[in-house]
Amino acid sequence: MNLDESSPRFSVIFAPELYERLVWFVRLRWLAVAGLCALSLAGPRLFGLERAWPALLVIGLFVAGYNAVFRAVLGRQRVDLGRYGNLRACAIRQMVMDLSALLATLCFTGGVHSPLLPFFAIHMALGTIMIAPRIMYLLATGTAAGLLVLYALQRGGALVALGLPEERGGIGAGELQVGAVILTLFAMVYLTASITTPFKQRNIALHRATRRLRQRTEELGELLEQVRQVERRKSHYMRISAHQLRSPLGTIKTSLEVLAGGWVRPDSERGRRLLAGIAERVDGLLAIVTDLLELARIREGAARAPWTSDVNLNQLLADLFDSLAPAAEQRGVRMRPQFEGVAILERGVAPDLVFAFENLLANAIKYSPPGGEVVVRLAVVDGTVRVEVADRGIGVPGELREDIFLEFVRAPNARRHAPEGTGLGLAITREVVEAHGGRVWVEGRDDGPGSVFIVELPLRGTRRRQPGLVTVE
Ligand code: ADP
Question: What is the pTM of this model?
Fold first, then answer.
């Protein structure tokens, strides 16, 4: 695992932790200041430090001074914990200052025989927890050099004036003491690093796992919201469907009650009209139920026929022209094909496509005035086939151009023009087109009334998507 401190991830994880430790270190240092001051005051009487106490007091005040500065610096850093580099520099500076103060204290408290020597080891351990081991090895080397210089001075008698006795004779306790301390410095860094590195690695792993968990939780929340939305749409869809079925059923019931109650004789003129009305409404109900079933089937992804290769759209449209010719003729509408190129879909469900285009063509005929014309253009551009069904009929009101593709939406002009109609055909058409990876929309005409329904389908790589969501708004 990467434990490179320059990596931003490392910084993000450890910056708050390092900050807390530095603050704690500052608090601890006040104890050291108190200790130094106490030593300087009680030293002359208790430890025979008659000459050293002013120096110890000065060192104590010096430590207090830089500690106050560090406290102020850390107070500012709190605002910007992301700047790990600043915090690390602060930690190193604190270490350097502490080790220097400790070395200075040594000069007045017995040199290499000072009882304060264990504090070097404590500093090395604490420092390695905060700072990278390689930097701590450098600091240990510097401290070792300082100790060696101090010992050399002490041995040469240069520090007698500070109260340190001159070392005499050959190699003895002084050398052993210095050697042991230097060894301890490096050993402390090594041991502390060996113990803390696995913890740091686990910390990083934990941090990553927490982040992944947070991401998953967010994703789960989004999915839950989607499911709720689908549920809401579903119940809305069911309500609309039930409503569409209920009104004709209500009319049928009333008509039947009139007939059953003997108010109108079935063989009378009014009775025959009532029966014809009932038959018409039942036809309407059947049409709605058939379309609803068709929509549900397509949405559930259960294609009427399996997907087949090489569906020839030109052929499919030509066959539709033939089958719709009688209806067009009956309404006095002329149908004109304009095919540019041949569109063969790599994969498709031919019966579904027939249903989709039949609905567009039938609508164009249904909503055209007698003598109108329906033009079907087919063009292939860049692997996409574009089919336009253009009529000069009643047109789709601008504000409803999106909505007519939703279930049961019928424009008022269409209701007036052709009262019969389920409002489900375009929803099915859109479902089929989207299942084939395409899209469908309607535009108005620039050159007068009418509308142009446009379908674009990719010729290749079409794959049936997952069963669609209910799209009622
Ligand atoms: P239906 O035709 O049974 O009402 P559709 O879903 O096929 O249901 O169409 C929905 C609505 O879209 C229609 O009621 C009508 O308002 C509008 N529409 C569809 N095709 C045309 C067209 N060619 N011209 C004008 N309006 C159309």
Answer: 0.59
